[in-house]
Amino acid sequence: MVLDTLQHKGNRQKLIKYLSNRYPFHPAIMEAMGRVPRHLFVEKGFDKKAYDDTPLSIGANQTISQPFTVAMQTQLLALSKWDQVLEVGTGCGYQTAVLLEMGMRVFTIERIKSLYVQAQMNLYALGYTSAQIFYGDGFEGLPQFAPFKGILLTCGADQVPQNLLRQLEIGGRMVAPIGGREVQMMTVVERTGEDTFKEETFGSFCFVPMLPGTQ
Fold first, then answer.
1. Domain membership flag for residue 199
2. CATH code for the domain in which residue 91 is found
3. Which of 45, 65, 121, 142 has the most crowded CB, counting CB atoms within 10 A?
4. Pairing relation of β-strands 132-135 and 56-59?
5. Core vs surface per residue 198-215: b (16+ CB within 10 A) or e
């Protein structure tokens, strides 16, 4: 039985208030995050910290992103309802749920089989049945469903994945943490033409590394 108690909802609203005071996030993002029960996406034992602004373990040496980071990446995507987005690194499915709550058409890919299965269970249990969830190599993307209005990387890449850039539509944006293993720069790459791109950075963040292949 899925439980989202009054206490959980109250803690969630406290988190949303904290995030809203910290940065001028779009109200639609805050409303979406206010509807997603983050405590149901984390490992058992971490649920009491689910509404702290901190990353938490989800197993397989992976983490659920800090809520501030989720909000920031979503804001940088600058997408609208019905826009098609590719998420690379489904993880537990929390970011996926936030995008779905905003009305986007979400295609998401996860390379770790146990997380792929867990994300499906998490999302479907909460009624997020429209998510298109795939098990595979994030570096390959999903060219069969391209082009995407937005591409979101929830893992840190050494450099901008060129193969994924080709899956962006003209005018689309990729939001990706780019840099070394310890710290990455949040990077937005906009496709301005068939072979032209514009790049901008928005501060340093820390993500698990983006790795090739599956496991």
1. yes
2. 3.40.50.150
3. 65
4. unpaired
5. eeeeeeebbbbebeeeee
- 67: containing domain: 6-205
In a domain, 211, yes or no: no
Of 20, 57, 65, 130, which one is the catalytic site residue?
65
57 is a catalytic site residue: no
Alpha helices in the chain (DSSP H): 6-22, 27-35, 67-77, 94-101, 113-125, 162-165
Residue type for position 162: Q
Q: Which two tokens stand for residue 122?
A: 């998490």
Whole-angstrom Cα distance, residue 148 to residue 151? 7
Say which amino acid occupies 213: G
Question: Residue 215: inside a domain, yes or no?
Answer: no
Which residues does 193 contact at the CB level (< 8 Å), separation at least 6?
170
How many domains is the chain partitioned into structurally? 1
168 CB neighbour count, 10 Å cutoff? 22
Residue-wise pLDDT tens digits, 59-91: 898 999 999 999 999 999 999 999 999 999 999
Q: Are strands 148-153 and 132-135 parallel, antiparallel or unpaired?
A: unpaired
pLDDT digits (tens, 9 = 90+) for 167-212: 999 999 999 999 987 899 999 999 999 999 999 999 999 999 999 9
- Length in residues, the chain: 215
